[in-house]
Every structure is written in C-alpha cells, then in structure tokens.
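# step 3/5: fold
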Amino acid sequence: MSTNEIKKQLDEAYAKAADQKDYATALSMCDALMRAHPELAAPLRTRAQIQAHKADFRQAVQDMTSVIEKGPAEPGDYFFRGWWNLEAGSTSDAIEDLTRALTLSEELKSDHLNESAHFFRAVAAARLGRYEQSLADCEHVRDDFLIFLKAGQVSKQQIVKEAQSKRGK
C-alpha cells in the first residue's frame, strides 16, 4: 500500500469520527493500518486524534506517547500530547510537553505551533498557580488569542486578568 493510500484511509477514518461520530469504525480502521504497517507512526497519530475528538484524553495521551516513543518525534506530537494532558488534568505533564514542543520547534526552525503552545502552557501554569510563568507565556500570544477546551473557551484576556489579580498572593 502506498503512502498516499495510507494517508487517504487515515483521512477517511478521521472524517468518520469527526463528521459522523462513528468512532468504532474510525478506530478499527486505524487499528487495521497499525497491524498492516507497525513501523508507521501515522496510524497511531490519527488514532490519538480520534481518541481526543471523542474526549478520551487519557487514551489519546497514551497513543501519542507511543508515537513519540516510535520516533522521531515532531513538535506537534508534544504539542498535542501537552494539550490532551491539560484536558485530562495532568497539568504538570502538559507544561513539560508544551515546553518540549517549543524546544523542538526552535531546533527545527519551525514555529507554526509556537503561539498556541505558549498559550496552552500559560493556561496550565495559571492552573498550577504559576502566575509569573503564565504571564511570561502570554507575552508570546496575540491579544485576541483564544482556545477552546472541553471546559469552554479561554482567552488571553481571561488568563492575564486572572494571573495579574492572583500573583503574589
């Protein structure tokens, strides 16, 4: 099976999950590709995304950990695992992953995820009461920046306001 055929099947699996909410079929498609091509990280990466889409963040983190262990890891692997760790309540792990994503991005001279990584890390730092760190990360984010977590929308303005009001307490 060619790389393009595998990509097409993975795109189809993700669409089944995202568009049709047919998670069982989507995960089964990923599992079949993983059995047929155990050397590839892409089926596992897509399975992690599907797990996150259905809000099974712990399983998404486990799958992405397997992707990272397969190597070579990409900044996005750490970014998404960090995001999902944040969603799963593993806030310290989220900070570690997002920091690794930023470090890898710098090493690879690839900054397309940096703003989001800084903001997710700012949210995580605020949750841990690390308000100075949160404010420092917010300096790398546009003023109108916001993210959507399962718990709801979070804006830079909210995080800055919270961090400024609570720091030093």
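# step 4/5: annotate
The chain has a mean pLDDT of 95.
# step 5/5: archive (pending)
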